[in-house]
Amino acid sequence: MNKIEELLKSSGLPRGEEATARKVYLHAGQLYASAEPTEIVTILGSCVSVCMFDRARGIGGLNHFMLPTDGATASPRYARSANEMLIAQLVALGASRSRLEAKIFGGASVLKTGDNGTDLGMRNVEAARLHLANENIPILGEDVGGVRGRKLLFFTGDGTALVKQV
Asked: What is the DSSP letter of 148?
């Protein structure tokens, strides 16, 4: 049994036939939202995932963006677009915008950019925090920064997130 399975077993979350019916692997530059209980898995380096959920409705999702500033077109590769698209999908599925809560993961220091050596990972984290503040969406938790990547498991039904540094 691997470490993630051990964590899941010890968490008391349902497994086996009671487990989440759907599992999704999310790549960089993608997002996923669901009104059905879903386990979303992604791997993060300097990228950031913002998990958002409406606990009362059991609707949640996450994005996996790569860059803090916008590109020429709206894309989930960029922080603002990824967050706006995720909010729109959650609301379309029946989530209440006023009940959305968030968690932030990733932003490891694996790449230096710019003349002053600013850290891309922390720029991504700051972009996520700023957008959530502007949208009045509370951040309930985060695991960000450092020099190691992360494996993230997010459960859309209740907003549970499990993270392991890799």
From this structure: S
What DSSP letter does each residue of 41-99 carry, written as one string?
Answer: EEEESS-EEEEEEETTTTEEEEEEB-BSS--SS--TTBHHHHHHHHHHHHHHTT--GGG
pLDDT the model gives residue 4: 58
Tens digits of residue pLDDT in 84-103: 999 999 999 999 999 999 99
Q: Which amino acid is at 132?
A: L
Q: How far separated are the first and last CA of the chain, in Å rounded?
A: 17
Rounded Cα distance between 21 and 161, Å, is 17
pTM: 0.84
| pLDDT tens by residue, 102-119 | 999 999 997 655 555 578
Region of 23 please: left (phi>0), alpha (psi -120 to 50) or beta: beta
Helix (H) or strand (E) holding 131: helix 120-134
Residues labelled as active-site residues:
47
Question: What six digits make up the tokens of 122?
Answer: 């922390």
